[in-house]
Amino acid sequence: MKVTVGSLRGALVATLLLLVSSAHAQTPQEWLLRMAEAVEFSNYTGTFLYMTPGNVETFRVYHRVADGKVVERIVALDGAGAEIIRTSRELICIFPSNRSVVVESRVGRSAKGGPLQAGLPFISGDLSAYYELSLGEPERVAGRQTELIIVSPRDGYRYGYRLWVDRESNMPLKSQLIGEESSMPLEEIRFIQIDFPTEVATADVETSLDTRNFTWVRQSERPRASATATMPPELRRWVPTELPGGFMLTSDTVEYTDMSAAPRVHHVYSDGLATVSVFIDAAVAASEQAEGLSMMGAANAYSLLREGMLVTAMGEVPPLTVEQFAAAMQLSGSL
Questions:
Q1: Are residues 32 and 178 in the same domain?
Q2: Spatial CB neighbours of 186, under 8 Å, sequence gap ≥ 6
Q3: Are residues 245 and 183 both part of a single domain?
Q4: Is 166 exposed, middle or buried (0-12, 13-18, 19+ CB in 10 A)?
Q5: Cβ contact 181:191 at 8 Å
Q6: Strands 215-223 and 100-105, sheet pairing
Q7: Which residues are 237's β-sheet partners?
Q8: Through-space distance between the first and last CA atoms of the chain, rounded to whole angstroms
Q9: What would the pLDDT profile of 81-131 be if each residue is shown by its tens digit?
Q10: Could you give the CA distance from residue 115 to residue 107 in angstroms, rounded to a whole number?
Q11: Does one domain contain both 325 and 180?
């Protein structure tokens, strides 16, 4: 058989087409899993917009991975320039406007990584029972070609997502949280510039602010099983009755702050994508309680008084979901 330049060229083209076809044959679930890994374990720096209806904020992110350790710094480019620094052990929030620093312990925490990751779905397990996954029309975001993954809920207990994932890096360059009755996003995060350096300098993930004269507030948490002996009896045995389908307990801790002597219980539930936090606090003066539904950006919260305690469910899920979570919490001794 005679081999010609033309036949070699044809074979090369066929091979390239096969490789391209194979790369694009990834399922939506595979794209989501690759995205979840890339956003946490890649080196990147960039500028992104955080948008909710009627509000746009601009942030700069520095995400460093070195020796298996992740450090992330996010700087608000608007206003007073608040900063958030995240390590594996703590989340440090710096507020120059009121000269304060809040430090939250992250030991044993299993939920989403940091503020940037909090705007993305937290992928865990098979999602098909409660979500339909599909691919949309690819488009360019921040000058890079992306694949569009559409996540549609199968019931009214969760929201949907649209995610534009970079074909080369698997990073989510644009994400939208989609509400129940509208195609308009409740929340959007969009990179307008991003780089993937081999290394991110240590100085980039350290604050340049002088915080020595700031007020420092420290919050810590412990697994509830190890903290039970020191907890008030009324906090020890809170359990849910009937929850929306698919939501499972992923974290159960007790939180402490040096601003308050009273601890509070913190449950985190997930359906593999959405998460709901349930807080149980010792009730303060009745006039200070805010029962009922409230909204904070794209998140909904529902609070009620029960057994002398304030129960609050919160998450980027529909109002019906947080209301059902709050109503489901009962003292096990009263069931």
A1: yes
A2: 52, 53, 159, 177, 178, 179, 298, 316
A3: no
A4: buried
A5: no
A6: parallel
A7: none
A8: 82
A9: 999 999 988 999 999 999 999 998 876 554 455 667 666 666 666 788 999
A10: 17
A11: no
3-state SS assignment for residue 202:
helix
Residue with tokens 């004269």, as numbered in its chain: 213
| Positions in the chain whose pLDDT score sits under 70 | 1-25, 107-115, 117-125, 182-183, 221-236, 257-261, 283-289, 333-335
Residues 159 and 199 in one domain: yes
Q: Which of 192, 181, 164 is nearest to 56 (CA)?
A: 192
pLDDT tens digits for range 53-62: 889 999 999 9
Asked whether the beta carbons of 115 and 74 are under 8 A apart, the reply is yes
How many domains does the chain contain in total? 2
Q: Where are the beta strands (DSSP E) in 53-208?
A: 55-66, 69-76, 83-86, 90-95, 100-105, 131-135, 139-141, 144-153, 160-166, 172-178, 185-195
167 in any annotated domain? yes
If asked whether residues 186 and 264 sit together in one domain, one would say no
C-alpha angle 312-223-286 in degrees, rounded to nearest 5: 30
The two structure tokens encoding residue 44: 């990147």
Separation between Cα atoms, residue 186 and residue 177, nearest integer Å: 6
The Cβ-side half-sphere exposure at 292, using a 13 Å CA radius, reads: 2
SS3 200: coil
- Residue appearing with tokens 């703590």: 90
* Degrees to nearest 5, angle at CA 93 with 104 and 247: 55
43 near 197, Cβ under 8 Å? Answer: yes
For position 214, what pLDDT does the model report?
96
